[in-house]
Amino acid sequence: MNQNIIDAVRWYSGQELEVTRAAMYGYLEVGQKLPPHLQIIGQAASLVTLCEAIGLDTHDVLQIIQNMKADLDAPFAHTINAAKDYARGELL
Q1: How confident is the model at residue 76 (pLDDT cuts 50, 70, 90)?
Q2: Cα(22)–Cα(36) distance, rounded to whole angstroms?
Q3: Tens-place pLDDT, residues 80-91
């Protein structure tokens, strides 16, 4: 089972961008009640914990996201900029 999840993450090519965007916003929304530094630490701790639990390198996941930022922020779906605006407005 873990290998199936690991393979799905490693080979993720953005087929489910709408679901990915919704998940990103959902995680941001849940953390809004926390102080800014805990929002960041909490998100990072969740990522590390999930990855370690199944034997997935956290750095691999971060690289996948870096590579697909342009797809996430496709025309009319300004996901990345909206998240950055949130961070600038709420965290700073």
Answers
A1: low
A2: 21
A3: 777 888 888 877
- Reported as a single tens digit per residue, the pLDDT across 13-34 is 777 888 888 888 888 888 888 9
For residues 12 and 64, the answer to whether their CB atoms sit within 8 Å is yes
The C-alpha angle 19, 24, 50, rounded to 5 degrees, equals 95
Tokens of 33: 């009640």
The two three-digit tokens of residue 39, written as one number = 């929002």
At 70, the amino acid letter reads A
- With a CB cutoff of 8 Å and minimum separation 6, the contacts of 58 are 47, 48, 51, 52
Q: What is the CA radius of gyration of the chain?
A: 14
Which residue, among 19, 12, 8, 10, has the nearest Cα to 79 in the 3D structure?
19
